[in-house]
Amino acid sequence: MIRMTRLLHHNTNQTTSLPDNRWAFLLLPTLKTTNTMSMKLLDNIPTQEWVDARQEYLGGSEVAAALGKSPYQTPFQLWLLKTGRREPQGSTPITEMGHILEPVCAEKFTEITGLKVRNISEPYEHPEYPFLRGNIDRQIVSSDKHPGPGVLEIKTTNSFRLRNEPNEYPISWHFQLMHYLMLTGYSYGYLMILERDTGYFHDPIYIERNEELIAINTQKVIEWWEDHVIADVPPDAMTDEDLLILYPDAKEGETVEANPKLYAYFQQLQKVRDRLNEYKTHKESLEHLLKEELGNAENMTLAGRRLLSWKNSTQRRFNTTTFKKEHPQLYKEFLKETTTRRFTINT
Predict the structure, then answer these.
(1) Gap between the Cα atoms of 241 and 248, Å rounded
(2) Using CA of residue 229, residue 231, residue 232, residue 237, what is the dihedral sign?
(3) In sequence order, which residues have a C-beta less than 8 Å from that of residue 231 and are 6 or more positions away?
(4) Number of domains in the chain
(5) Is 187 part of a structural domain of the chain?
(6) Is the pTM of this model over 0.90?
(7) Does some domain include residue 171?
(8) What would the pLDDT profile of 209-218 be if each residue is shown by its tens digit?
(9) Structural domain boundaries, residue 49
């Protein structure tokens, strides 16, 4: 088992403080040019140098990707980034907005919980494995409620993502917070979540340190870094996107002869496809029967509970055919050609 300690380089800045305005983020476009607070906030936006430097270590937000648990990045895609085979993505409007809103969320956290927080400008680093690092959003100051400091992880997201999340919050956030607890040695943390599109602050979520999970995940990410980044050996492809990165162009006429194992996969795929087609046909048949009974009605209910609806829906679509005919030159100027690989089954 690895030894868990924390880096001693701390910078205990003053406790976060903002004007008493919980909706300050709605005024950011004007704050940008009218007061000095916006300049302090904008200083927190990651620079390109910061983005490039992330190639040298594994940060908290990348732990889930290394473990194959991120919805946005696979271990293979992370490996491409860390080995310099793919250019790091620069700062985006969403990431910039997240950094701008951090002080607002930190102030709201203090307002809700009564717990004070402070900035820690220096990154934490594992003493034995320096490629394991982390920049925490805020340190929670020791209090009567929580003797000893903690980690505040701030997340700005959208309501759609949370509505479609099967758990209370994404597992990748949990792994990230555990990574920070491992690096700091702290025993607890909080998640503070703000929905960018609605302005809604979720109640802070208290999370205790889980020694077993920390030990397992830390050992796995150490092995991932040593086996793939240091050894320069790519992880296995997990998704079709990975495969398209590996094999973007089909060589015309080249053929692979199926061995018994591949032919067994092919037969299984045929059976699954046929079964899906049967389910699709059955689904469409049942939908037709229900629509027929609905007629002009909009809803179907049972004991006052709505079971389903068949509502009018208006769609606006760009008429590409007409535009091409009326403005052929403009169509050519804005036409974007992309190449992919189409997977088909011959029966």
Answers:
(1) 10
(2) negative
(3) none
(4) 1
(5) yes
(6) no
(7) yes
(8) 999 999 999 9
(9) 12-242
Q: Give the pLDDT confidence of 153-209 residue by residue, as tens digits.
A: 999 999 988 888 889 999 999 999 999 999 999 999 999 999 999 999 999 999 999
331 belongs to a structural domain? no
Q: Which amino acid is at 258?
A: A
Assign residue 227 the CATH number of its domain.
3.90.320.10
Residue 90 included in any domain: yes
Amino acid occupying residue 81: L
Secondary structure, 3-state, the chain: CCCCCCCCCCCEEEECCCCCCCCHHHHHHHHHHHCHHHHHHHCCCCCHHHHHHHHHCECHHHHHHHCCCCCCCCHHHHHHHHCCCCCCCCCCHHHHHHHHHHHHHHHHHHHHHCCCEEEECCCEECCCCCCEEECCCEEECCCCCCCCCEEEEEEEECHHHHHCCCCCCCHHHHHHHHHHHHHHCCCEEEEEEEECCCCEECCCEEEECCHHHHHHHHHHHHHHHHHHHHCCCCCCCCCHHHHHHHCCCCCCCCCCCCCHHHHHHHHHHHHHHHHHHHHHHHHHHHHHHHHHHHCCCCEEEECCEEEEECCCCCCCCCCHHHHHHHCHHHHHHHCCCCCCCCCCCCC
